[in-house]
Amino acid sequence: MLGTHLTFPSSNSKFQIQMTNHTTKILIIGSGSAGCTAAIYAARAGLSPIMVHGMQPGGQLTITTDVENYPGFEHAVQGGWLMEQMEKQAANVGTNIIHDTIKSVDFSKRPFIAVGESEDSYIADAVIIATGATARWLGIDSEQKFSGFGVSACATCDGFFYKNKEVVVIGGGNSAVEEALYLANIASKVTLVHRRDSLRAEKIAQERLFANSKISMVWDSAVEEFVGTEEPTSLTAVRLKNLKTGDVSELKTDGAFIAIGHSPNTELFKGIITLDSDNYIVTEKGSTKTNIAGVFAAGDVQDKIFRQAVTAAGTGCMAALEAEKFLAGH
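Now predict its structure.
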């Protein structure tokens, strides 16, 4: 690593900033199950990878409580604990893990260069992008007004505050059903609001949902507005519109959880790497290769179909193996 010192004059003193150039054969951007798995495989191949944490160290699993569909565990495990174990394993086999967030990349030539929020530079012969995805919001003004004051996109983060209270979950896929089932263990009542007359979630998840006496459904309806008090700011109800009849009604609630899916974290790569119409990174069929030789993508940042921890880990493995092969040929 090479250190660079910059000195900025001030009227009273001098501020000294040290920027470091980190060099590596493989740079892994993101630290979820895809990133950690890629790091484990790359490190075991003797490539001494650097993995940069990103804005959400550990990815989405860190805000997931019971994980019962990841192979190798008889009983459900905590998502945060599972990611801690993955990261420790990656470090143990030789990964250099750095707490930083990449803010820009230059993939125009090799070696590739990425710059972090710390102003450190990361110089790599190959890059694996594993930046994942983030929760999607409804996009209505009142949503942000009450965000943190009754409106949330993470039941496992904020569900604790609604013990023995009534809550609403908005959505109809696996995320919404999982959130509703989780909240049913905390809240006194859970209402799931969906804009259609049937759910898109897996059948087994739907069966669990409909069997839970604390959960009720509101079909064919969309949220028009979140309603509450100004001082103090607090959500008291959601205004719903029935999409078939046009009727508008208010449903009293103490909290509302948005669970309508996720968007890939690819803003950093727009105009640099080929993205599809939904902004997911495009990779070759059966591969993690992007349109730039030496740059690979793994996990939810390129998977818009499955979006599971185990599939993310699988593509993380693929990316590391393909990166190793690429480096061997260059």
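Helices lie at 33-44, 79-92, 141-145, 155-158, 174-184, 203-211, 309-328.
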